[in-house]
TrEMBL record, chain A:
Source organism per UniProt: Haloarcula salina
Any GO BP annotation: translation
Domain Amidase: 12-417
Key word Nucleotide-binding present: yes
The encoding gene: gatA
InterPro entries membership: Amidase, Amidase_CS, Amidase_dom, AS_sf, GatA
Catalytic activity: L-glutamyl-tRNA(Gln) + L-glutamine + ATP + H2O = L-glutaminyl-tRNA(Gln) + L-glutamate + ADP + phosphate + H(+)
Name of this chain's protein: Glutamyl-tRNA(Gln) amidotransferase subunit A
Automatic annotation (TrEMBL), chain B:
Recorded catalytic activity of this chain's protein: L-aspartyl-tRNA(Asn) + L-glutamine + ATP + H2O = L-asparaginyl-tRNA(Asn) + L-glutamate + ADP + phosphate + 2 H(+); L-glutamyl-tRNA(Gln) + L-glutamine + ATP + H2O = L-glutaminyl-tRNA(Gln) + L-glutamate + ADP + phosphate + H(+)
Gene of this entry: gatC
Taxonomy, superkingdom: Archaea
HAMAP family: GatC
EC number: 6.3.5.-
Organism: Haloarcula salina
Listed name of the protein: Aspartyl/glutamyl-tRNA(Asn/Gln) amidotransferase subunit C
């Protein structure tokens, strides 16, 4: 047991004797299937669910020689920004007392920040790798959509999510990315990345001489002053090493977080329909008709945030509202994509604070879901645009709270963001 | 801008569609929160119609029998089974 509740299950899984990750521990988020080791997704619904197969990323970790020390705590089904919605209790931030670790991969970032695992896998649907990396002062990468297999990842919003690495340094995160990346015939959305003559880890050379950085002003506007100060200090640091920056306009991102939530909730309402207490999960009983049984199983098994999102997603897709919410959100997604493509035609990477606020105090987000959703304003546009992004530690606020810098690259431009990020961490 | 206020009946209706039973206290909280969240989603009204340029292609494979989970493995996580099949509630 960690003092900050980082793991749901601590059970060691041995990897191969040799390989690029031999001798290293890689913790795995508890929504990624591990054969024979229970996988709860932070939900009471899956309290005793033991997958009969490994996710592709887990197979690759084992083949690379990694030891998996356990399954990390998370917001239930990935739904949260603070890792407080887990049925197994909240995770505390090991580097900022009294604060949340960020979410939803809060356990993965916390075990890395505390030094209890060398690295970890998280998943990022709207910022769930980058947010906890920023709040815990470590590095997290959300890969280009399609770079990493989602086979064996329990789906929340499958058009948006990717598995990615969390590590103390950019170079280590890049090493872990190398192991998990690549096409998988069991996930038809994976793609072969364009060929490159260096590994991801080799790209972590810290050389930013001549790098052109675009700064979307919209992502600084609503941000906390202490975060903005730390952000500019990090950019000055990059400028001193030969990078240059210019401001760019991304008008579409003003609507991104709303579009993200409509799409994510809609997909969740469909994906989570499988949890009916028949094939897995607790049975809702055999009395009455099946609708009553399913509704009963889902009342018992799901926490409040999951119910909220499943209901709102059902609402957004229901007759009479589909065009108003879901169709508009898809328009916004296309617009965001176009805006990013344009901005990246004139810059190598785009930079912003990862989160507009420092880590929240524990407990303050649970009663105010809308405020929690809006905290994802800077991370969600990247998922809508299918692009890669990294969060690297940028420094601390005057109160000693970690601040993350987000760098966004073009599709399959992981090496660009790794190179730029490695100048800072 | 239209009024997005939500009443408890709507929350009950959508919970019914989603097959999720709710307690009265949850219905009360969700009624207020949904009003607030849906009001924020109204911002999407300002989004212009945008063409989606999908640079995607279908992935096909031959339809051949391959190894898969055994029946025993597939049933292992079910709360109840009967004669090698999942046991569910009555379909009325």
């Amino acid at each position: 047991m960690t003092a900050y509740n980082g793991y749901v299950t601590e059970e060691e899984i041995e990897g191969a004797a040799d390989g690029p990750l031999a001798g290293r521990t890689v913790a795995v988020k508890d929504n990624i299937s591990t054969e024979g080791v229970r996988t709860t997704c932070g939900s009471a619904m899956l309290d005793d669910y033991v997958p009969p197969y490994d996710a592709t990323v887990v197979e690759r970790l084992k083949a690379a020689g990694a030891t998996i020390p356990g399954k990390t705590n998370m917001d239930e089904f990935g739904m949260g920004t603070t890792t407080e919605t887990s049925a197994y209790g909240p995770v505390e931030n090991p580097v900022a007392e009294g604060r949340v670790p960020g979410g939803s991969s809060g356990g993965s970032a916390a075990v890395v920040a505390a030094g209890d695992a060398d690295m970890a896998l998280g998943t990022d649907t709207g910022g769930s790798i980058r947010c906890p990396a920023a709040f815990c002062g470590v590095v997290g990468i959300k890969p280009t959509y399609g770079l990493v297999s989602r086979y064996g990842l329990v789906a929340y919003a499958n058009s948006l999510e990717q598995v990615g690495p969390i590590a103390p340094s950019v170079e280590e995160a890049a090493e872990l990315l190398e192991v998990i990346a690549g096409p998988d015939e069991r996930d038809a959305t994976t793609q072969e990345a364009p060929e490159a003559d260096e590994s991801y880890a080799d790209a972590a050379d810290g050389d930013v001489d001549g790098l052109s950085i675009g700064v979307p002003t919209e992502l600084l506007d609503g941000a906390d002053e202490s975060v903005v100060e730390t952000f500019w200090a990090a950019l000055d640091d990059l400028e001193a090493r030969g990078a240059s920056y210019h401001e760019v306009d991304l008008p579409s991102v003003e609507h991104a977080v709303e579009a993200y939530y409509v799409i994510a909730m809609s997909e969740a309402s469909s994906n989570l329909a499988r949890f009916d207490g028949v094939r897995y999960g607790k049975s809702g009983g055999y009395d009455g008709n099946w609708n009553e049984s399913f509704a009963n199983a889902r009342e018992e098994g799901f926490g409040e945030e999951v119910k909220r999102r499943v209901l709102l997603g059902t609402y957004a897709l229901s007759a009479g509202y589909h065009d108003k919410y879901y169709k508009k959100a898809q328009d916004a997604r296309a617009w965001v994509k176009r805006d990013f493509d344009e901005a990246l035609s004139d810059a190598d990477v785009l930079a912003s604070p990862t989160m507009p606020v420092p880590p929240m105090k524990r407990g303050e987000s649970l009663d105010d879901p809308l405020t929690m959703y809006l905290a994802d304003a800077n991370t969600t546009p990247v998922n809508l645009a299918n692009l890669p992004a990294i969060s690297v530690p940028a420094g601390e606020t005057d109160d000693g709270l970690p601040v993350g810098l987000q760098l966004v690259g073009p599709a399959f431009g992981e090496r660009e963001i790794i190179r730029a990020g490695s100048a800072l961490a | 801008m239209s009024d997005p206020a939500v009443d408890p009946e709507e929350v009950r209706h959508v919970a019914d569609l989603a097959r999720v039973d709710l307690g009265d206290d949850e219905i009360e909280r969700f009624t207020d929160q949904f009003g607030e969240i849906l009001a924020a989603f109204e911002a999407l009204d300002d989004v212009p119609e945008t063409e989606r340029e999908a640079d995607l292609s279908n992935v096909m494979r031959p339809d051949e029998v391959r190894e898969s989970l055994s029946q025993e493995e597939a049933l292992r996580n079910a709360s109840d089974t009967e004669e090698g099949q999942f046991k569910g509630p009555k379909v009325s």
